[in-house]
Amino acid sequence: MAATQFEAVDARRCFPCWDEPALKAAFQITLDVPLELTALSNMPILKEKLNGDIKTVYFEESPMMSTYLVAVVVGSFDSVEETTADGIRVRVYCPPGKSDNGKFALHVAVKALELYTRYFSVPYPLPKLDMVAVPEFAGGAMENYGLIIYRENDMLHDELQSTAAKKQRLSEQITVVAMHEVAHQWFGNLVTMEWWTHLWLNEGFATWVSYMATDNLFPEWKVWTQFLQYTASGLHMDSLEKSHPIEVEIIHARAVLEIFDAISYEKGSAVIQMLQSYLGDAIFQKSLSSYMKRYAWKNAKTEDLWSVLTEESGVEVTNLMETWTKQKGYPLISVNLNGHILAFEQSQFLLSGLAGEGLWIVPITLCLGSYERQKKFLLKTRCGEIDISDLFNSPSDCLGLSEENDPEKFKEHFWIKINIYQSGFYRVKYEDKLATQLIKAIESNYVSAPDKFGILDDTHALCQAGKQSLSSLLTLMGVYRKDIDYTVVSNLIEVCYNIVKVYYDAFPDSVDYLRQYFINILRPSAERLGWESVSGEPHLNVLLRGEISMALASFGDEKTHEDAIRRFKSLLMDRNTPLLSADTKRAAYIAVMRKTTVASRNYFESLLSIYREADTVQEKERILRHLAASPDPDIVMEVLNFLASDEVRDQDIIYGFRGISLEGREAAWKWLKDHWDFILNKYGTGLLFTNFLTDIIALFSSNEKADEVEAFFANRTTLAFAMNLKQSIEQVRIKARWVQNIKQEESLPELIKQLAIKG
To answer: How many Å apart are CA 243 and CA 231, to the nearest integer?
Structure first.
């Protein structure tokens, strides 16, 4: 098989061209290929000529398009196809014998074409759309015009081997990815960024609109709440001093790949969501339609989009949004209440704890005691005030309460939430009294799932930055003990993981008590959900069961380990055992690897056997994610060598990095240094490469290790990864500072011991 990947600047390696997005051209592709193989390109086949065992395939001439979107795929495939109501032929190409596995992706693609045609009021401009699954692909997928290429695990859906639970999880993954790539056929392909500085126009919008489309097709999945999980990584990266603006100047072509990151995708989509929430659905949709029609087949800059939005909405969008796209970072909004006056102060939020200089025009939304009492305004200066007397004395909610008619009951139900539903890309710090009232509102379940997510996420970030104590964060986390929302609990688990990683270096002797406290917090949800899925249960329960069981296995919960190992033994006897679903398998894999050492490696060997026998890419991925979870550094070293062997696809090595144990981090760093030349030769410095840096370096929490990393890379850094390296080292130093802050809380080990014993 052969497949091309030209984005960002590799078309020039295939044919002579002006390889820049603004220099569009029409392309007429001709291929000479072996007779028995299928040849695909952006356009339909015009004709074929046979010459012995070679055929020459001539494709129709394309419309005007950028070089990075030209594509060719050659191989043996089976396919399934449908035709849209507008006559567009959609085909999905799969490995031979697996065409049924492409039917779900085909269904989604057809729906996406129809939905986007309506939403943008612009028809899909090509006569066909092909989607191809390939076994080796650095990215998740690529939106080549009329020929989208995917990793197999992002497109293939094995209906026969999937449980109901697995179908739900995989369906969501495939839908969001397919919606993203099909959206690019408009945002990126029809209207293309003028230069890589405006990459976010492609990726941020395709991401945002993919969630919009997925929610339209499957509202029961509640993907907008899960969108908060996605954009949280943008908030994290953008709180680094080594972050970059959404619109980042690109001078060297090879530096382009570094901005395919959480700023272009996650932050980009989040500020779009913020703007759309501020302007409203109807105006936003109308503006995007006008933008598409005005710049079809052309190139556009960020300013062009702002101009259209300003014309259509009457709001000065350019001034508002340039504060978000032309400077890095985002604000922390500090809030104080004095009588009926709410005071706001904005400052740039940095995880380093230092004060930044940024200033934004911030769409502030707030509610008081109920989501029916809302106010919104633009904070344009460093400090601002707003009178909320009307919210105190307007009994507009279902309780009918106001301060005037029932002051005691009003006080009981009083709370203020800033950044309603987390629609804004900023963090909030409340004065102590407001924070206490908000915690009571969470306990009484008055607060929405997105806002519960945001309160915990903001508090976690403030703790990392040294602006709040770890003891206050741990107290807040206890309030979430009974929560059942997938996104909220999933975020709670992520915060647990992050705290353990730094506490391990601060107070290693009491880290087991911390793990036990987290087990206590998660156990009620685990007992409610159990190990087995229930027929007809909500989709998000399925996802949550897997997350909680993995967390309990990671934290060493003995009951979870006993259950997991018993179920793993059943899996060894019967690969289709009902005792392990696709989602709970991962907990079993963690449990058996946590029991694996050089002296006791039977489970490890069994897991490798399952990997070698697995006939789905999803099962192989699940196993790779947890092979390095062993507490034995020698096993971790062995796993890393296995990941780099021919038994693992090049694209899949990154899955293994994400599960490296804390005990194995020194072994992983040694492996990276010892194999540096091998890594460069085998994997290059493309999209996969940054994971070698970010996933291994980020395991550490000391300035000494940051110094060591800097020294190793002093004469090894290139433009292809310079920024990512600096960000990784900065994150190590941020965690080192957090460790020192935690050590200063001298009573913390005793508090955690009491929390753990309390149950």
So the answer is: 15
pLDDT digits (tens, 9 = 90+) for 591-605: 999 999 999 999 999
At 423-478, the pLDDT tens digits run 999 999 999 999 999 999 999 999 999 999 999 999 999 999 999 999 999 999 99
**Residue 334: which pLDDT band, with cuts at 50, 70 and 90?**
very high
Query: Alpha-carbon distance 153 to 140, whole Å?
Result: 9
Neighbours of 671 (CB within 10 A): 22
Q: How far apart are CA 311 and CA 301, in angstroms?
A: 16
The pLDDT of residue 260 is 81
Among residues 525, 542, 516, which one has the least CA distance to residue 480?
A: 525
Amino acid at 197: T
| pTM reported for the whole predicted model | 0.92
**Tokens at residue 730, please?**
């900065």
Contact, 577 vs 570, CB < 8 A? yes
Closest CA to 109 of 67, 79, 72: 79
Residue 394, pLDDT score? 65
Report whether pLDDT(356) > 90. Answer: no
Q: In what order do the strands lie in the sheet with 416-418?
A: 374-379, 362-368, 416-418
State how far the alpha carbon of 419 is from the alpha carbons of 268, 282, 375, 453, in Å: 18, 22, 10, 12
Q: Is 605 a catalytic residue?
A: no
Per residue in 162-178, pLDDT (tens digit) is: 555 556 667 888 999 99
| pLDDT tens digits, one per residue of 696-712 | 999 999 999 999 999 99
CB 551 within 8 A of CB 518: yes
Of residues 158, 199, 149, the one with CA closest to residue 177: 149
Say which residue the tokens 């038994």 belong to: 647
Q: Is 470 helix (H, G, I), strand (E, B) or coil?
A: helix
Average pLDDT, the chain: 92
10 Å CB burial of residue 570 (0-12, 13-18, 19+) is middle
- The active-site residue, picked from 7, 143, 181, 258, is 181
- Identify whether the C-beta of residue 262 lies closer than 8 Å to the C-beta of residue 236: yes
**415, exposed or middle or buried, with CB in 10 Å at 0-12, 13-18, 19+?**
buried
Single-letter amino acid code for the residue at 412: E
Rounded-to-integer distance, Cα 472 and Cα 330, Å = 24
Q: How far is CA 15 from the centre of its chain?
A: 34
**Cα distance between residue 504 and residue 498, in whole Å:** 10
Taking the C-alpha atoms of residue 72 and residue 41, their distance in angstroms, rounded to an integer, is 5
**Do 247 and 302 form a contact (C-beta atoms < 8 A)?**
yes
At 569 the three-state DSSP class reads helix
Q: What is the mean pLDDT of residues 330-341?
A: 95
- Check the CA dihedral 665-670-674-677 and report its sign: positive
How many C-beta neighbours within 10 Å does residue 372 have? 14
DSSP state of 267: I
Distance CA 157, CA 100 (A): 8
**pLDDT band, residue 398 (cuts 50/70/90):** very low
Angle between helices 748-758 and 470-479 (to 10 degrees): 20
State the average pLDDT over residues 65-91.
97
Q: What is the DSSP string of 609-655?
A: HHHHH--SHHHHHHHHTTGGG-S-HHHHHHHHHHHTSTTS-GGGHHH
Query: Distance between CA atoms of 134 and 152, rounded to whole angstroms?
Result: 6
What pLDDT score was predicted for residue 685?
81
